[in-house]
Amino acid sequence: MLIPLDVCLLEFTFLLWSFLIFRIRRKESGFIMTDKQFPKGFLWGGATAANQFEGAWNEGGRGPATSDTAIAVKPEDRKNMEEFAAPMTREKVEFAINDTEGLYPKRWGSDFYHRYKEDIALYAEMGFKTFRLSIAWSRIFPNGDDAQPNEEGLQFYDNVFDECAKYGIEPLVTLSHYETPVGIALNYGGWKNRKVIDLFVNYARTVLTRYQDKVKYWLTFNEINIMGISGYVGGALLFEDGKQNLSDMYQAVHHQFVASSLATKIAHELNPELKVGMMLARMQAYPATPNPADVMEEIKRDHENLFFSDVQVRGKYPAYTKRFFKENGIEVIFEEGDLEIIAQYPVDFMSFSYYMSSVARHNPEAGGESTAGNFSLGEANPYLEASDWGWQIDPIGLRITLNNLYDRYQIPLFIVENGLGALDTVEEDGSIHDSYRIDYLKAHIEQMYEAIEDGVELMGYTPWGCTDLVSASTSEMSKRYGFVYVDADDEGNGTFDRSRKDSFFWYQDVIKTNGGNILN
């Protein structure tokens, strides 16, 4: 029997509307079935660092750290890196530590020390699978070389990790994130002194042993390549003549390579399930033109950037190092057994920060407009837009970076910093509408998925400054990254109360759907 056409259309319309209503209800309940998602077990979360977030610089037995000497950069100087990269001397450090009138925002950060329960509860509300934080070395060993650790400091991190465990959040812990004890600088001259290896290893063994059942994922040194830009920030180095010495800087990073491998050895001996990674500030560069000279310049930039991960991931110094050291007058002393230690204990995974890309040109004078970046200045890419601070926004560059790094190393990757520093406005009703941040993150997450489809093994994603914190380079609060707003200004005025931005609820949905709300 033939069914009339109008009846067929009516039945089809009914089925279509039933399906659409089902999809809408599933979406509203947070359980929409998606065609595209990130891999099961993907570690969504957010990232912070003790030196910019924790505060309480002189409480709980904590000693002064190099970050506590970072004075706030004047607004007119915030788009250049001169203050951040300026060489430090003993006189400058001693003055800063004893200065009670200057503005040192990292000393109070965002007051995580007193508000960690509230902050972690907010992360749980968003659905975090992981939370990246760092341990302040000087909270455990106040001078860096103390005979015994500070129990009050150890207990603080016990409390933090226990709070994470209460919500099922996996900590991702950085051992050294721009917060070396000042005593290491003043009494040892920083990481150029080989004795600091043993001091760090003692610190690493202390916390790895203490927290082995609470923390699975560890990073040794944050953005280890910062040593090539600021010897003081990266390695507590002092330069009494006011000029950075490349030999000292690369000697210091060699000692960090050895120390990182020894920390990895300790972690694996304690528990083979512990995973230790390295962390690089990735500086993806494009040749300015097809001119072979520009292409070669891009290769040189890559060598300078990836030297640090080549050593820590591959377990050996790359061949191009010999020429780079020779042409730059760099002399590094290798003690017997150093290279064997580095070779025997490479990292388990590679993590990195990605904020922007850059342009490589053999003849910089032939270039166009300049722009700022993550610890760098360079030529602007005319195909990209820029943030309020001049950092160019390049989501596809993240996919390029992921593919390049995975092709090079063939080990799991982890994006542990990414995000948009911007000026946020609090409306009269207390709301913060940060659609620009959502747009930035959405575009980068889409490219992460594309890289996974390309075959990249990506462990997780922790956008930087999930709660507003003090800027690493300028020590300002105005440059905000967070999903959570902190009521504090650049001078430390305010209640420090937390409030949710629009991006908080958006990221909550991203995690709930495992990226499906973006990808479908």
Automatic annotation (TrEMBL):
The keyword Iron-sulfur does not apply. It comes from Enterococcus sulfureus ATCC 49903. One of its GO terms (biological process) is carbohydrate catabolic process. GO terms for cellular component: cytosol. Keywords: Glycosidase, Hydrolase. This is 6-phospho-beta-glucosidase. The active site is at 417 (nucleophile). It comes from the Bacteria. GO terms for molecular function: beta-glucosidase activity. Belongs to the glycosyl hydrolase 1 family.
